[in-house]
Amino acid sequence: MSTLDAKSEQILRELSRHGRISNLELADRVGLSPSASLRRVQELERSGVIKGYRAVLDPAAMGIGFVAYIGVGLGDHSKASQEAFERAISGAPEVVECHNITGTIEYMLRVECADLPSYKRFHTDMLGALPQVTSITSYVVMGSPKDARA
Amino acid sequence: MSTLDAKSEQILRELSRHGRISNLELADRVGLSPSASLRRVQELERSGVIKGYRAVLDPAAMGIGFVAYIGVGLGDHSKASQEAFERAISGAPEVVECHNITGTIEYMLRVECADLPSYKRFHTDMLGALPQVTSITSYVVMGSPKDARA
DNA sequence: GGTGAAAATTTCAACAA
DNA sequence: TTGTTGAAATTTTCACC
């Protein structure tokens, strides 16, 4: 299962865009019999290439009207500081992504809130209250011309 | 469908994490009969709250071993420059996300490549070759302690 | 919102290339 | 090993209560 052949790649392409099409439909699109298609999908799931399935929800319907990326710098690079920060972040529902990055700052967050007031609240009460955090740079998302992960 | 009740929110929570569970399983988890559950899901799909379904793939299995966020600044804020940049980006498979942001720079990209050499190639041959681009700041992702969109 | 039955799909064992 | 067939088990779907 080390390297994927063309059919399996085609299956992954289909499922990454249409995660809930029937196996019959999938088999038809990739040009396999339903059982051959199913066997490949099951193997891809079993081996972990397919990690799961997600419904993609409309942010607006979920009450999300404000998205920002935030660069966060810590006062020191100690493991304790990082762990404390990550622990605080893990409990914050507004933080959808937290990436540990190289460069002049330590973290890049993606934050999703209802609106600007709730973002301000998060910014001051949550981020601003963390003693490890020494710099915060907000990049408010005005639009996403491309977002394959949405 | 203006505001969602508790059951529908529960359905959305389940489907956003387990997008392919059977309707029987879903109905059981949220405490509805299969037909009531199905009716709600269909309505959520029809109204656009559920925009679709996706299989979540393992990046490593897909040959992705290098992820970075890139802040991009343009030389001018003209519509022509933005359109030219976005057009170039839309054709770059390495760019998974492109966000138009507020602040000192215009764009924040998420780029996924096989490895550092292929990233360097993208960085110089693609981004560096765009005449509109005047600043590039890479934030290489070393890890993602939290990533609800993965 | 629930029930029940028809239609469609998933799943798998046996077999073929 | 990978693909196919066919039939049983399961699920989806919908008219009706």
UniProtKB/TrEMBL annotation, chains A, B:
Pfam families: AsnC_trans_reg, HTH_24. PROSITE patterns: HTH_ASNC_1 (PS00519), HTH_ASNC_2 (PS50956). PANTHER family: LEUCINE-RESPONSIVE REGULATORY PROTEIN. CDD domains: HTH_ARSR (cd00090). Keywords: DNA-binding, Transcription, Transcription regulation. One of its GO terms (molecular function) is sequence-specific DNA binding. It comes from the Bacteria. This is Lrp/AsnC family transcriptional regulator. The keyword Hydrolase does not apply. InterPro entries: ArsR-like_HTH, AsnC-type_HTH_dom, Tscrpt_reg_AsnC-like, Tscrpt_reg_AsnC/Lrp_C, Tscrpt_reg_HTH_AsnC-type_CS. One of its GO terms (cellular component) is cytosol. The keyword DNA-binding applies. Residues 4-65 form the HTH asnC-type domain. One of its GO terms (biological process) is alanine catabolic process. It comes from Roseobacter insulae.
